[in-house]
Predict the 3D structure of the following.
Amino acid sequence: MAQPNSTYAIHTESLCRDFGALRVVNDVSLAVPAGSVFGFLGPNGAGKTTTIRLLLGLLEPTSGRAEVLGFDSRTQGGEVRTRAGALLEFPGLYERLTAEDNLEFYGRVWRMPGPERAARIKELLTHLELWDRRKEIVGTWSRGMKQKLAVARAILHRPKVIFLDEPTAGLDPVAAAALREDLIGLVARESVTVFLTTHNLSEAERLCGLVGVIRQGRLLAVGPPDDLRAGSGRPQVEIEGSGFTEEAMEKLREQPEVAGLEVRDGRLQIELRDDASVAPLVRLLVYEGAAVEEVRKRRASLEEAFLSLMAEEPHD
Amino acid sequence: MTDTLTVLSKELREMLLQGGRRGKTALLVFVAVFGVFLPWQSGRYWVTSPISLIYFSWLPLMQVISVIADAFAGERERHTLETLLASRLPDRAILFGKLGAAIAYGWGFTMVAMVVGLITTNVASWDGELTMYSPGMAAAILASSILTALMAAGAGILISLRAATVRQAQQTLGLIMMGLTFVPILGIQALPHDMRRELFTQLAAGGTVNFVLLLFLLGAIVDAVLLAAAMARFRRSRLILD
């Protein structure tokens, strides 16, 4: 069968999935460009894992459609799975087998020729600093090591698209940071499309070029993290110093650039209208006798943008 | 076929590692009892008596039951099933790989016990010439052990497909096998005396060979039904949701 062409690695149209009376995925339309890292963000039970299962053809949609690499997930699930790698909710490793045996098995599953399989296993385990421990039974390993091995398994056969379902969940901060570094390196080297679900918003901010926010099965927003941040709340400036008198604050409030301000813990926090310049405000403060030591302009973090989306009332 | 063999070899490897040292000791005890102790006690009778046909029909059943519950329920319990289902493996390769591994395990150890038993009999009762199974008996043992291994594997897969845990699968399978063993015996005993005598007369009139062939035919039908049911019930989406 000829492989269909598509500029998007993942494309869904009004994707829905019901479990009984409960709609778990509700009218999700997504387009993830090939070669990008897409972060799928949402609280527990938002429908992230179900969406991955639908994309992999492990579940059938109630309505709508999903395409991965141009293949319909419902009717061509096998084609999708042949070209995809997945690290799902659990590492999914055979704990009675050694690390090498686990990768060997999945290498055979993907029909990698013997020499290529051996070279690839060595390459990945060496890169993830697991090569010396390849003969150990996986059941004896720490969660972080298992997760690393599961990442290696997911990309072993050089898939064109990888689904990672909360890859750093349950890891301690050091292990999570190390795994993140490994992921960044691997994704850059392998140049694949990554569909990543995570609760960790700084992780998403760091790894993803595009993020989608889902709540109660409904996609609330999609875009680059910068756009999501920009769309959530106004830019802010934080000024450290002293002499923030009431008169100075009154004059600041009268400025058209200022949407609001407050002094908290000796720091002046000003909410700006759009992309207003800070310099005239600082000048005014100095003119009014304030001693300015440090000025920091900041936008809402992805976490703030996410929380603001979560706080919005559902539209249903 | 390659995919089926890939799954089969992984399954066999896991089966042999199952239970660690204790598991391996249990297998050695199995071979020691049915390959050394009983043949040593029975002498030539171990090879010539039709009782060995019953032994070698029952042994693979026990061996397969000890591993088949783990096939899907074990993967589900250990959270490896979804990753396996998310791979490129076709449904049939997963199903037949697991079935094949359980049969190879149960039937393989039965054959090992049979060969060791043959050696033991010859060593224990050596009278200058080799004691061998008659061709008919050897064929009957091979056929019956395969059929019972397949029956246990088919029933076990069906239960394992839906069971949440290995323990649940084992308990259900144990109950079914107990039912399969005792219901026919109790059923025959419950028949009125005249009817029972008539049944045995009819069976005897047909001859032992015909009776055994009839049993094989019934076994083959049951195996085919179980296999078809397992194939029909193997659905990725159902396995994920279960």
